[in-house]
Amino acid sequence: MPFTLATWNINSVRLREGIVCKLLSEEAPDILCLQECKSPVDKIPLEAFQALGYRYIVARGQKGYNGVAILSRIPIEDAGANDWAGLGHARHVVARLENGVTIHNNYVPAGGDIADREVNPKFGQKLDYLTELRDAFHAEAPARSILVGDLNIAPREDDVWDHKKLLKVVSHTPVEVEHLAQTQEAGSWVDVTRADIPDGRLYSWWSYRARDWDSADKGRRLDHIWATSDIAGAAHGSRILRPVRGWDKPSDHAPVFASFDL
Question: Where are the beta strands (DSSP E) in 123-207?
Answer without folding.
Answer: 145-150, 189-191, 205-206
